[in-house]
Automatic annotation (TrEMBL):
This is ABC transporter permease. CDD domains: TM_PBP2. PROSITE patterns: ABC_TM1 (PS50928). Its main location: membrane. The keyword S-adenosyl-L-methionine does not apply. The keyword tRNA-binding does not apply. It comes from the Bacteria. The chain crosses the membrane at residues 24-44, 51-73, 147-163, 183-204. It is found in: Cell membrane; Membrane. It is a multi-pass membrane protein. Belongs to the binding-protein-dependent transport system permease family. Keywords: Membrane, Transmembrane, Transmembrane helix, Transport.
Length: 215
């Protein structure tokens, strides 16, 4: 069976796996973004706290993804739970680091001006600092998403959702007629999803970042 024939016969299953893969990455990115920005907001004003936040989140990336998921299985079981926890932890570093850099890079005179017109600390953060720090934060989100697209495939080891199941089935049946087709279909599917997500982020940047800041 040729690769195109395989795609045709397995189209429905591949689309389902692709949707689950994209959904898992998107949901984990939402959680990682919320946690990452919160960590940055709490730590960016202090040098040691910011460095601690970056170092702590960087530590997660030193743990091999297969090992981390394997360690999580006895604690939370198989399926979605270890996938969500692992992907969220791996997605934190670029977001935390870029959010801290972005918040520290805000012009202090703008913050002082906002303070001068009576803005509270929360209002300054939400209406001045975070909007100005949004471009580097978005860059961190893009980097995290590209990483998680590949790492999410390993979640199949823990019966997680996504295109990793197609890749693992192919690897497990190497030598059979469709083994290469399975691995290739899963791999190309992840690449296509990564490109689609990145294109969506580019569009989001054009819609949310003023042209002057982009320049």
């Amino acid at each position: 069976m040729s690769f195109w024939e395989y795609l045709t016969t397995r189209r429905q299953q591949l689309l389902t796996d692709a949707f689950q893969h994209a959904s898992a990455v998107f949901q984990c990115m939402v959680i990682a973004t919320a946690l990452g920005v919160l960590i940055a907001v709490l730590s960016y004003r202090s040098t040691w706290a910011g460095n601690l936040a970056i170092t702590s989140t960087a530590t997660f990336l030193t743990v091999p993804s297969l090992a981390l998921i394997g360690l999580l299985i006895p604690v939370v079981g198989l399926g979605v739970a270890p996938t969500v926890i692992a992907l969220t932890l791996y997605g934190l570093l670029p977001i935390v680091r870029n959010a801290i850099v972005g918040l520290r890079g805000v012009d202090p005179s703008l913050v002082d001006a906002a303070k001068g017109i009576g803005m509270s600390h929360t209002a300054r953060l939400l209406r001045v600092e975070l909007p100005l720090a949004w471009p580097p934060i978005l860059t961190g989100i893009r980097v995290s998403t590209q990483m998680l697209m590949g790492i999410a495939a390993i979640a199949a080891y823990a019966s997680g959702p996504g295109l990793g199941n197609e890749i693992f089935r192919g690897i497990a049946s190497l030598g059979s007629a469709n083994a290469v087709n399975q691995v290739l279909a899963g791999t190309l599917g992840i690449v296509v999803l990564a490109l689609l997500f990145d294109a969506a982020y580019v569009l989001l940047g054009r819609l949310t970042i003023p042209r002057g800041i982009r320049a």
